[in-house]
Write a structure and sequence with these properties.
single chain; alpha/beta; Rossmann fold; 5-stranded parallel sheet; 5 strands
Length: 248
């Protein structure tokens, strides 16, 4: 993993160790360490907490303004074509991005297409099996945990999406490079300056946000945009096939 701002670098959590932490917990501003289980000094200041939450909400809202809706739309069109042509969508990420990948895969597999419809989107999240990830990480290398799964599952024409705050996580880069070698269509959600991933993929879903949590907020909203647009498009297609009219 790269030491630059990324899922494992702690970049997104630095705010809690500085001035904001002192403001929120003024009783411990003198620097004296707390004894284990000692909560007598831990009296948070509600006003400072509220100010910090409002400040963060503003940062998150600014991050959402950085979303490129046209780029998300082009990627969503590729997801729709995957469903229509019975190709596969593979997703993966590290840390918080892994949770976003899981969320996107789950909604595309369950919420997006009516259960009465036999044709589903073949979607697979590669960070969802601890046994596979730990086997590959232990037996080979951490950089192999997604690369080898892409090798296992991907076929030419499949769609492969990764998510990364920094865009520089070496295991994600390795997996995307393998996907490209296999003839897959590739995409990456990134923050900060986009890192190496931004220039590697067919669909860069980039938000120029230089804090991890607001960048990940934008990634989750993009995931929900994809889910919503895919759901509406698929249901319109199904309605046209059955009744000759569009539906929602």
């Amino acid at each position: 993993m790269d030491p630059s701002p990324g899922e494992g670098s702690g970049e997104g959590y630095s705010r809690w160790t500085g001035d904001q932490a002192v403001k929120m917990y003024p009783q411990v501003s003198g620097g004296d360490p707390l004894e284990p289980n000692d909560i007598s000094k831990m009296e948070p200041d509600p006003r400072s907490i509220h100010q910090e939450l409002v400040r963060y909400l503003g940062e998150s809202q600014q991050a959402l303004q950085m979303i490129d809706a046209e780029a998300v739309g082009r990627f969503t069109a590729s997801v729709i074509r995957c469903w229509d042509e019975d190709r596969q969508l593979l997703l993966f990420g590290n840390g918080g991005s892994a949770a976003t990948a899981t969320h996107l895969a789950e909604d595309l597999a369950t919420y997006a297409i009516p259960f009465s419809e036999p044709k589903r989107l073949r979607v697979l999240c590669l960070n969802d099996s601890p046994s596979i990830i730990t086997a590959l990480g232990n037996d080979l290398d951490f950089d192999a945990i997604f690369l080898e799964q892409v090798q296992q599952w991907a076929r030419p024409g499949d769609l492969v999406l990764t998510m990364s705050g920094s865009g520089n996580s070496s295991n994600l880069i390795a997996a995307i490079q393998r996907a490209e070698q296999l003839g897959c269509e590739t995409a990456a959600m990134t923050g900060f300056d986009g890192g190496e991933l931004r220039g590697l993929v067919d669909h860069p879903l980039h938000v120029e946000v230089h804090q991890m949590q607001p960048a990940q907020d934008a990634h989750m909203v993009m995931a929900h945009m994809i889910i919503h647009a895919f759901r509406v498009a698929v249901r319109n297609v199904l309605a046209q096939r059955t009744t000759g009219s569009s539906g929602s």
